[in-house]
Amino acid sequence: MQRWRGLEDIPEDWGRSVVTIGSYDGVHRGHQVIIGRTVERARELGLPAVVVTFDPHPSEVVRPGSHPPLLAPHHRRAELMAGLGVDAVLVLPFTEEFSRLSPAEFVVKVLVDRLHARTVVEGPNFRFGHRAAGTVETLAELGRTYDYDVRVVDLFVRGAAGGGEPFSSTLIRRLVAEGDVAGAAEVLGRPHRVEGVVVRGAQRGRELGYPTANVETLPHTAVPADGVYAGWLVVAGESMPAAISVGTNPQFNGTERTVEAYAIDRVDLELYGLHVAVDFLAYIRGQEKFATLEGLLERMAEDVRMAKGLLG
Question: Which segments constitute the Riboflavin kinase domain (predicted)?
Fold first, then answer.
């Protein structure tokens, strides 16, 4: 799969393509349907499928300080998109100048002049251009002028028929913030993942017999609510069952919020400086401060037993 950053990275001889545009944070099940339809249409026409996304998140440029928690960094999104059959991902630097493009200017600059779009596939709530003035109707109207067609794909809905809510990154962020990682996984189609480099902490876990990887998360990461979880520690492609702690460690009067993962029954790992991932499967309990160290150790042993059971 080709990865481009900015319009200038697109090959000069790039031909026609089938395109979808969006932030696609998380590449959740709703996104997967839209991207899947994009790939299907591309295969029908014998053309490449291209996903256009943005960095930073548009809201950070339009409303500084409002950057939403991110469900997946761009390299992770690209991996997931490649798995869906996408041929190229274009990450557009979202600047103040870029935000001022009218819908028509956006279409000409991106879809017509550089990607030579034959078909554009979007969800019904797609908006684009200055002040989000463009809609799928605008996109289709411009398509009649610039020789591309538009396919609109309905969003998946979570919950009972007629009573659920559309799958969305906003929904997943809320579920993650509430600690409902099982609900988040339902919408994502996989466990929620947090990534970062393993850094040295207070090393209390090692002293207590549960050495943990203290993960320094990437900026703007959507970190689950404070508590203990079952999941996996992923190192160099290997997924190890893990008990995961998120929070400030009140037992030792901590103040800094951390993500720490104990790879169950593994005391031989040397992970400092490595980029790792933590996948959250299930919530076990909230963060607690115990009256004694013995009480903490008993609870940690129970957490590990529960995590083992949940992870099979």
Answer: 187-312
Domain that includes residue 70, residue range = 2-155
pLDDT tens digits along 19-69: 999 999 999 999 999 999 999 999 999 999 999 999 988 877 777 777 889
- The pTM of this model reads 0.91
> Is 86 in contact with 51 (CB distance < 8 Å)?
yes
Query: Does the annotation mark 260 as catalytic?
Result: yes
Which residue is listed with tokens 């995590």?
Answer: 307
Beta bridge partners of 221: 70
Q: Is residue 33 a part of any domain in this protein?
A: yes
**Other Cβ atoms within 10 Å of 10 Cβ, number:** 19
Annotated catalytic residue within 79, 260, 270, 294? 260
Looking at the fold, whether 124 and 228 belong to one and the same domain comes out as no
Cα(50)–Cα(120) distance, rounded to whole angstroms? 10
User: Are 202 and 150 part of one and the same domain?
Assistant: no
Is there a single domain that holds both residue 151 and residue 202?
no
| 240 beta partners | 233
Q: pLDDT tens digits, residue range 74-113?
A: 999 999 999 999 999 999 999 889 999 999 999 999 999 9
Dist CA 252 CA 210 (whole Å): 16
> Number of folded domains in the chain?
2
